[in-house]
Amino acid sequence: MTPSSSTRPRVALIGVSGYAQIYLALAKAAQERGEIELGAAVIINPAEEAAVEADLRARGCVIYRDYERMLRDEAGRVDLCLIPTGIPWHARMTLAALKAGAHVLVEKPLAGSLAEVATIRAAEQATGKFVAVGFQDIYSPVNRWLKEQLCAGAIGPLHTVRFLGLWPRPAAYFTRNPWAGRLHADGTQVLDSPLNNAFAHFVNLSLYFAGPTAGEAAQVRVESAELLRAHAIESFDTSVVRARSADGIAFWFGATHTCRGICEPEIYLEGRTGRVEWKHERSCIIHHADGRREERALPDSSANRQSMFDAVLAKLRAPDTFVCTTALAERHTAFVEAVHASAQVQAVPPELISWQNPVNGAAPVPVVNGLEAALAHALAAQSLLCDTGFVLRPKQTA
Questions:
Q1: CA 240 remoteness from chain centre
Q2: What domain range is 210 assigned to?
Q3: 220-242: per-residue pLDDT in tens?
Q4: Percent of the chain scored above 70 by pLDDT?
């Protein structure tokens, strides 16, 4: 189903709670502007969402308790299906929506494994429908501008890309749903981690900035990695990863949830004739070799999500509209799988952990002694933590 010039796209939404509240708000606002018809929604917890359900019904939205039932009943009548759900369900819900004849906007990451990504991409091609991925930052006009500058050679050929992010997370962060901190959940691979969840936007953006053309992200080979966990989880909550692209660009990724201080995501790009400093929700600065500076203010996450939603709606009528495609998102999933294949997750010994309140005053988090300083040194040197003198000493036994 493709919307004609005289009809509004009919949109379906899977879920209204948690992060899905953001997609719900975007869809409701678009409906109020006359841009879409919010025709169907899945609400699996009606007791908790009674007010939302009543509002949606008043808007003419048909409510379902099960996404499979919705997509069966609404097959051929939905232009766009919104899937703001957890990682374990991205692939199965996307495939069902494509089968029902809908285009898709699915939250990041595209899927928990390359095998699932391949299945989605095959279904996308077979149905002729598009799948857009909710890596919201890639839709920012400033980030699109920066990509154009990089492709035009603004700082010469890239040779280094570095990313750093420190966001403390309490224990409750990993008990908020059945897949947080897990490697597998609900019968599928999840690989939840800072690189595949909280900081996934910026890992994906780093790969995108380094892609050889305007519509490509870099494909990288992981050279070495340190994966640590201080929380009681299966996966890692701290990582340093070094990787390299086929054309020789060196990548360094550092991220943790086990810190007291906060470092909002930063991306540093270095080329032969200049460099870029990118700081989340703050600024993007191109430093040219002749001393010139080009600076753009970066929009906040809310504005990026609006840009994302606008782009996806525009693509329904103008197929050439830029969105984060499955091809772009596949590079992120490939990187995450390679990280897990490259190293074992190491548990941080309890004697190296102190539970402290982070600087933002939230619930206590496990702070790994010396980690924040080691990450700063490793960022500067593009090294592993162990090369900075940071050592995980095992517990002493009698």
A1: 18
A2: 140-298+325-388
A3: 999 999 999 999 999 999 999 99
A4: 97
For 18, the token pair is 């948690």
Do 123 and 240 belong to one domain? no
Residues 259 and 214 in one domain: yes
CATH number at residue 354: 3.30.360.10
Beta strands in 272-377, from DSSP E residues, in sequence order: 274-279, 283-288, 293-297, 345-347, 353-356, 365-368
Please write the tens of the pLDDT for every residue from 315-325. 999 999 999 99
Q: Look at residues 79, 55, 62, 57 and name the one whose alpha carbon lies nearest to residue 1.
A: 79
22, 303 Cβ separation under 8 angstroms: no
Do residues 108 and 231 both lie within one domain?
Answer: no
**Domain match, 279 and 189 both:** yes
How would you class 291 by CB atoms within 10 Å of its CB: exposed for 0-12, middle for 13-18, buried for 19 or more? Answer: exposed
Are 185 and 179 spatial neighbours (Cβ–Cβ below 8 Å)? Answer: yes
Question: How many domains are there within the chain?
Answer: 2
Q: Is the dihedral of CA 142, 145, 151, 155 positive or negative?
A: negative
Q: Among positive and negative, which fits the CA dihedral 24, 27, 32, 37?
A: negative
- Same structural domain for residues 43 and 122? yes
Q: Measure the CA–CA gap between 233 and 249, rounded to whole angstroms.
A: 33
**CA-to-CA distance for 334 and 190, rounded, in angstroms?**
13
Predicted TM-score (pTM) above 0.70: yes
Rounded to the nearest 10°, the torsion over CA 347, 350, 351, 353 is 90
Alpha carbons 103 and 78: distance in angstroms, whole number: 8
Q: Residues, the chain, total?
A: 398
Measured CA to CA, the distance from residue 350 to residue 292 in angstroms comes to 49
Q: Other CB atoms closer than 10 Å to residue 119's CB: what's the count? A: 16
Helix-strand-coil percent breakdown of the chain, rounded to 5? 35, 25, 40
Query: Rounded to whole angstroms, what are the CA distances from 389 to 241, 366, 372, 375?
Result: 17, 20, 13, 11
* Cβ atoms of 142 and 299 closer than 8 Å: yes
